[in-house]
Recover the amino acids of this structure.
């Protein structure tokens, strides 16, 4: 590792002209990658709380058979007095705040979209990517700092449009769009079911979020290709930088396809085109192809930065370089490439030819090979290492375990024969929550606990962090493991109610949500304790690198928090001393 | 340190990225004709084929063709088929009759759309004459007899996906057009 004495010497000189955090213009006009990264992280936390609260309503509704919260269909006269979330109207009747079963579907739809576009992506790419890609490659900032500002500020706009979309008329069934995060035609184009402005606002929201991500992707590509410090060759870049590089290429190639598909939805809805309308010679299945050509790379976009984060953490807390560095980097590249040729495994039930299905089954299963390389390399990194089970390491090991479990059910679902049975059941819900709700989210928490002292210069309570981890770990498993059973028994997704036979495991699953919510409270108490109650600064000796000798990437050569402008003199990365 | 972002290398990569985004967007927005061409060539999604003459070969193997007709709810048309199924030899030319009656007291403009299941047989369902994807106007109370002349391409027995298919369902839907 190139030590960077100059940056240390500079930190109290001109590098540290940090404007006041209470000046709103600092944030509004920010061109500083660390400030923008911080805004992304705060935005992701807010969106995560909203999306998490929505999943709370979903689990509340599903806690027992019958309709609990979304009872709007039954609101005749005073029936609503003893119902949950009942509000009295001026004429004395009672209405359900959250509407009817359509309201439930809106919740499910928006939970998915918010968690994907406004929580995981901003946290991983915008937040950690902005903060640590320039630091790790020895760059003073991103290549286009002003474009970086636009990338961030488009997101709250997109989020506002998505929120308004939930409040305006969606169609004959009530407010909001309830057709699922995939926005499948013809449900999303039907004037009868979703004729209101809700779907149009959602399309606009996704367009703007997409533009934000594409601008961010271009910024990362240029930064990583052109702004690496002397000696920082591509094959010496930390794996987190590699993961962001692959991710932003996926964004660049897949997001325009989503933009095209939802533009066609927009014209089908408003301008009389028939792209997806069978009555006019169009084909709704074409929408599915377009959507999943974007959608499958998108799920790798959500998880790849997590792979990078976990690689850094496992190496740091095992005090060993990552096992098989090049294999790890190119495993991510090949996951990215294969991610573009497996999309139809999301739509086995549309009636493809057997040989086409066989291709998609085989291609999908091949993804397990590079993924397996990553899992085994993480284990091999830990093997024989001097393992320190600090909070970030707990989350990283939790990630490896739970992501592998989700990967195993993914291989099951890759089989078209089995998928025909399990398609759109809770088995699928369990699968993608194991890889995303536990995979991606655990990786985000791992990265957060890993880099929080670096970003803030403060210490957090390891006890609270550990408590957060263990409550979360138990909670999410109790939520999602029983959903495998429900799916295997045939419980379909996206219904507000279910037969009595599914009651037991749904109840267990909802208890799991309550446990997880307690874990989230511990997380916020940990933040309160860290930033307000105790506010302990890192000691001088461990200021640059609180994690000791295992933390070898460039960000640990700087002070904590890093100077407002770093690397005035570029660090030189020596051979043999990288990643 | 002030570093201008507009160095030639940076601009070059931005240009490459913008070209990629533009290219992907162009492909996506032209998906309809591309997908259409793909379906016609491969019979994907049960897209049937059109032929100009019957095949020379008739196999000594029969296949059952079932006929399904429907209209979306609220369409003022009665759509019937003259036969629920027909069994013929593979390669032999078949004739199916359909009748459409306008139940309303005003002209109805409608368009027919169809496909076959299993979808994989689309490539082998050859139509010599049909009514499809053309606007038709039905006068009040009018009844029209619409024939379909078709044959099953003998190559169907050579494809692993379709050689075990013994029943093909042809499904027609009549959609009312907005201005009719």
């Amino acid at each position: 590792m190139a030590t960077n004495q100059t940056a240390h010497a500079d930190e109290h000189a001109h590098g540290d002209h940090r404007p006041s955090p209470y000046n709103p213009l600092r944030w509004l006009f920010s061109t500083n990658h660390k400030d923008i990264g911080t805004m992304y992280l705060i935005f992701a936390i807010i969106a995560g709380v909203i999306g998490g609260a929505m999943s709370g309503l979903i689990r509340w509704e599903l806690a027992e058979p019958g309709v609990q919260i979304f009872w709007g269909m039954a609101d005749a006269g005073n029936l609503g007095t003893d119902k949950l979330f009942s509000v009295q109207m001026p004429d004395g009747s009672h209405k359900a705040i959250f509407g009817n079963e359509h309201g439930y579907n809106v919740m499910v739809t928006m939970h998915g979209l918010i968690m994907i576009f406004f929580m995981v992506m901003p946290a991983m790419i915008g937040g950690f990517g902005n903060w640590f890609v320039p630091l790790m490659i020895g760059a003073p900032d991103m290549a286009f700092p002003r474009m970086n500002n636009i990338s961030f500020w488009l997101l709250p706009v997109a989020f506002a449009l998505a929120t308004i979309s939930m409040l305006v008329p969606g169609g004959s069934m009530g407010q909001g769009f309830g057709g699922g995060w995939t926005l499948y035609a013809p449900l999303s184009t039907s004037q009868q079911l979703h004729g209101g402005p809700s779907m149009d606002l959602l399309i606009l929201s996704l367009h703007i979020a997409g533009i934000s991500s594409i601008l961010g992707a271009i910024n990362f590509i240029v930064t990583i290709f052109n702004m690496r410090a002397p000696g920082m060759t591509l094959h010496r870049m930390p794996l987190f930088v590699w993961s962001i590089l692959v991710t932003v290429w996926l964004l660049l190639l897949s997001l325009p396809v989503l933009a095209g598909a939802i533009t066609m939805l927009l014209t089908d809805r408003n301008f009389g085109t028939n792209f997806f309308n069978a009555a006019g010679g169009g084909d709704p299945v074409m929408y599915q192809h377009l959507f999943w050509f974007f959608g499958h790379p998108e799920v790798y976009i959500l998880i790849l930065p997590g792979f990078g984060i976990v690689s850094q953490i496992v190496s740091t807390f095992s005090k060993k370089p990552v096992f098989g560095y090049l294999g790890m980097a190119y495993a991510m590249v090949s996951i990215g490439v294969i991610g573009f040729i497996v999309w139809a495994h999301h739509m086995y039930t549309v009636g493809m030819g057997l040989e086409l299905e066989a291709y998609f089954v085989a291609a999908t299963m091949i993804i397990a090979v590079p993924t397996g390389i990553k899992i085994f390399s993480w284990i091999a990194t830990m093997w024989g290492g001097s393992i320190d089970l600090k909070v970030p390491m707990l989350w990283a090991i939790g990630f490896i375990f739970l992501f592998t479990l989700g990967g195993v059910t993914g291989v099951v679902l890759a089989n078209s024969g089995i998928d025909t049975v399990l398609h759109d059941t809770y088995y699928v819900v369990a699968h993608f929550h194991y890889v995303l709700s536990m995979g991606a989210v655990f990786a985000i928490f791992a990265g957060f606990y890993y880099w929080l002292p670096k970003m803030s210069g403060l210490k957090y309570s390891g006890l609270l962090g550990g408590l957060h981890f263990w409550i979360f770990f138990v909670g999410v498993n109790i939520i999602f493991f029983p959903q495998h059973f429900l799916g295997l028994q045939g419980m379909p997704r996206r219904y507000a109610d279910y037969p009595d036979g599914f009651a037991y495991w749904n109840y267990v699953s909802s208890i799991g949500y309550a446990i997880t919510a307690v874990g989230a409270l511990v997380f916020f108490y940990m933040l309160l304790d860290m930033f307000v109650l105790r506010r302990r600064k890192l000691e001088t000796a461990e200021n640059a690198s609180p994690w000791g000798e295992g933390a070898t990437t460039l960000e640990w050569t700087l002070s904590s928090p890093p100077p407002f402008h770093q690397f005035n003199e570029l660090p030189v990365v020596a051979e043999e001393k990288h990643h | 340190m002030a570093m201008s972002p507009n160095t030639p290398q940076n601009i070059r990569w931005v240009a490459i990225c913008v070209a990629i985004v533009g290219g992907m967007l162009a492909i996506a927005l032209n998906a309809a004709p591309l997908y259409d061409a793909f379906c016609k060539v491969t019979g994907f999604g049960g897209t049937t084929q059109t032929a100009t003459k019957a095949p020379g070969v008739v196999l000594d193997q029969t296949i059952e063709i079932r006929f399904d007709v429907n209209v979306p709810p609220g369409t003022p048309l009665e759509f019937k088929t003259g036969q629920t199924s027909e069994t013929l030899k593979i390669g032999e030319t078949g004739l199916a009759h359909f009748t459409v009656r306008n139940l309303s007291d005003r002209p109805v403009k409608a368009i027919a759309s169809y496909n076959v299941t299993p979808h994989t047989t689309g490539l082998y369902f050859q139509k010599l004459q049909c009514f499809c994807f053309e606007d038709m106007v039905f006068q009040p109370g009018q009844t029209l007899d619409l024939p379909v002349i078709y044959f099953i391409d003998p190559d169907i027995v050579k494809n692993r996906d379709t050689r075990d298919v013994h029943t093909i369902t042809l499904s027609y839907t009549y959609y009312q057009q907005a201005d009719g």
Remarks:
- Confidence is low (pLDDT under 50) at residues 1-14 of chain A.
- The longest helix of chain A spans residues 101-137.
